Amino acid sequence: MNSCSVEGVFQVENLNLFYGEHQALIQVNLPIEKNKVTALIGPSGCGKSTFLRTLNRMNDLIPNCKVEGTICYRGENIYDKTTDVIDLRRKVGMVFQKPNPFPMSIFDNVAYGPRCQGVKEKNTLNQIVKQALIDAALYEEVKDRLKENALSLSGGQQQRLCIARAIAMSPEVILMDEPTSALDPIATSKIEDLIIELKKQYSIVIVTHNMQQALRISDKTAFFLLGELVEFGDTETLFTHPKHPKTEAYITGRFG
Amino acid sequence: MLNNRRITKIKDFFLQTITYLSSFVSLGALLIIVGFLFSKGIHLLNINLITENYLSTGFVADVFPDTPLCNCEPTIELGENVYYSPKWGIALVDSKDLLGKNVVEIEYVHANSPLRQVNDKGIGIEPIRLRTDYDMIRIAFDAYPTALSRFGAQNMIQALEANNTIREMEFQTTGGGIRGSIITTLYLIFFTLLFALPIGIGAAIYLNEFAKPSRWTRLLRTAIETLTGVPSIIYGLMGLAIFVPLTVSLTDATGGNILSGAMTLAVILLPIIIRTTEESLKVVPDDFRQASLALGANATQTTFKVVLPSAFPGILSATLLAIGRIVGESAALVFAIGTSIKDHITVTGKSTSLAVHIWAMMTDEPANIELSATIALIIVFITVILNLVIKILSTRYLKRKLGGAHE
């Protein structure tokens, strides 16, 4: 059990995941590197979102979900019985496909995570919220209406708020599950710029359906098909010289 | 082909007509009820009914010896049907009391009247001041037939004018007011919600957020649903068997009281509150729960900081339903709180709610339909007003909480 690698951020080894009888991930081996954007691509139902959710154990919430194999994070297997899931999720933030701010004020949304951790001091909270909003490139747009309901923001702003909410926990890794699929092109490009900016501080894993997006923002790309990791490598190489014929077929649009 | 389309059209028309008719019938039923209450009850509705005591105090008194007769004219303008006795300086009028019964009401007493202050023949030592809203029941003379209120005000005045002495007179304060029952009803609402809301919401949270689907939770749900259908009179019996003795042994209560009534109502309401709250918890998007958990919040934090506030509108409607039920419940309360109508309300004392007040009025001989309709109107008003107040307060709460952008 202690044969856990300390290299990179995550080291995924022989990961198998079952939803009841159905095997959704088959023998996945994948390293996630520090301060890089790793894109997960593949057709719908290929297991890329499932894989993303194994990294912060959000799959725990699904009944009948069983995980085998190891995911090393800081030298420890996060599927060990001793792992503190709450602590893991504080270190590994997540942004969802649909912007899902809480029905509270903008400020309360960003302050939610720190508050749950027990931060009560008002100045500290103000500081955290301000910095998170600045880092998420949202501060200028909302600084005068922090008390307003977050649901009054536009979709793109809501998604950046969700990113700010994740950043406020000062995580190491941010997982993004198709963060732009519900947004228009302008909001999408803002989020993409933000991701490139964020990579300086955080390691990012992003699931995307949009191959142009993967090409634009990611350093590494992993291609999943039917629960298997078909190919993993530098994004440029993978898109220009795919090793596997199925990868080539997918990125050239012949199926998917 | 054409024929088929025509059949479809006829079918559509038929089904649509049924829905129109159904909605009209339900609206009509409501209008008929409200209309009935108004037509029967509106003429007894006045502020005295709401503010007055139910029980009237009767007095028996005679005139202090050596008080001179008045022989004076009234100092105020008296109405048309008011009869005045110059000799005694008193004006009487035929009137109806709060219960709608015929009475002779004292309209005016002259400042020099010998009847202004009379000698209490009961336990009192102090002279009684004859007040203008008292009802005169009878006036007895030394050598003259007693004047009774059922012969009317004119007869009484004629008798007074014909006599220079009064042997004895009987009068009483106005009774029949429903103030006590209104207060009891408000108390009941408060205590019932105090008992039922925390337990009901807690149970709903357990069932929807924490409990893993199992045979036990299925059983629990079935039990709760079954309880919804149990007639309330059975709960009343249970209240009589459990809560009345419980409150009697714990407090200074001697029988059914507001607390035992509220506890019984709380049990009746639990299934309703649990179900309504659970429905509202179910519609809170899973996105919120996931977002909260992904931020490192634990299940309890997620439930109380995110899920519960989002379910607030649903919990509010559960509360409104509950209030309607509390105000309207009578069968269970007949046992759990009792039917004695009281004016001085204490939490552990005997009293009764408005709905049971109606029941008491209808079991009178003869049944007092008018007053029942009036009380029913008041119940409707109270329910509407409470609902509005809660709606307004909650809108404000939501606005403050959400920074004015809640849709």
Fold topology:
The complex is a heterodimer of chains A (256) and B (407).
Chain A: E1 10-19, E2 22-32, E3 37-41, H1 48-54, E4 65-73, E5 76-77, H2 85-91, E6 92-95, H3 106-117, H4 122-135, H5 139-142, H6 155-167, E7 173-177, H7 185-198, E8 203-207, H8 211-217, E9 220-225, E10 228-234, H9 235-240, H10 245-251
Parallel strand pairs in A: 3-8, 3-9, 6-7, 7-8
Antiparallel strand pairs in A: 1-2, 1-4, 4-5, 9-10
Chain B: H1 2-41, H2 47-51, E1 58-62, E2 82-85, E3 90-96, E4 102-109, E5 117-120, E6 128-129, E7 135-140, E8 147-148, H3 153-162, E9 168-172, H4 179-210, H5 215-228, H6 232-250, H7 258-282, H8 286-294, H9 299-310, H10 312-328, H11 331-336, H12 354-362, H13 369-402
Antiparallel strand pairs in B: 1-5, 1-9, 2-3, 3-4, 4-7, 5-6, 7-8, 7-9
Helix pairs in contact in B: 1-13, 4-7, 4-10, 5-7, 6-7, 7-10, 8-9, 10-13, 12-13
